[in-house]
Design goal:
With about 300 residues, this protein is an all-alpha fold. The protein has 15 helices and 3 strands. It has a 3-stranded antiparallel sheet. It starts with 8 loop residues before the first strand and ends with a helix.
Length: about 300
Amino acid sequence: MNDDGTRLFTIGELAGATGLSVRTIRFWSDEGVLAPAARSPGGYRLYDAAGAARLELIRTLRELGLGLDEVRTVLAGERTVAEVAATHVAALDARIRALKVTRAVLSTVARRGAEAAETTIVNKLARLSAAERQRIIEEFVTETLHGLDTVDPEIQERIRRTTVHLADDPTPEEVDAWVELAEMLQDPEFRALMRRAVEFNAADRRPGEPRGRSLWFARRLVELVAPARERGTDPTGPGADEVLDDLFGDADRAEVLERMTAGFDERVARYRELLAVVNRQPAPPHAEDFAWVVAALRARAGR
């Protein structure tokens, strides 16, 4: 007993009361986070009720993931449990985000049946910072618009506002989409395709023409094509001629097809879909309407 009559406990008694091993309690005592209240005549460490309570706190803090140095700062009153907990919450959040990215990458690799080299690329692309992802987009946009000052200003602004916001906790589908999109953005053939579409826009715009004409045409196309599609009009059949005439007049169909396939090519449509998935936005509207027009023009190519 203590001088004041309170009971003292041996390490073995503390172990029996708490379920901790003698070895663990001795280690914490050796590390200085659980100082004994006294020593027995034989030199054995003895602990009082305050020491037993301290032991429970140490165990709790350790179970929550705190290192012994952090435990010391709490026990010494240098930091509160709340402050340490907040730090660990932030660290755990970061770890959870990293684990979610890892899971998504592994799902992508498994789904693709990727080999070692492709696995490395997928992992690298998925772990790029937001700034690095945006840099890829900005390089693509710069190359697409370089020197084309007569592009419809509305189109220019839309292209320049293109961003990528891959979530901190991406789903496997979002990682898939970002990897495919990043590969597409760095593909010289796709870059040339987008550049050609913008070149057509720049060439078609007459001096003094009001901004937004390209968007007006897109709205007009939807107004004419959507009802035709709803009626079940086959783009390859004769019923499509009236729609094409209303939309393009007597313009050369081969030239129109070249412009339409540049701006609404399957890969361009896929690019827009991928952006929507990565940014967690709705799928681009009216893609079917533009595809219908391209199909109708292709069916008439060479006639």
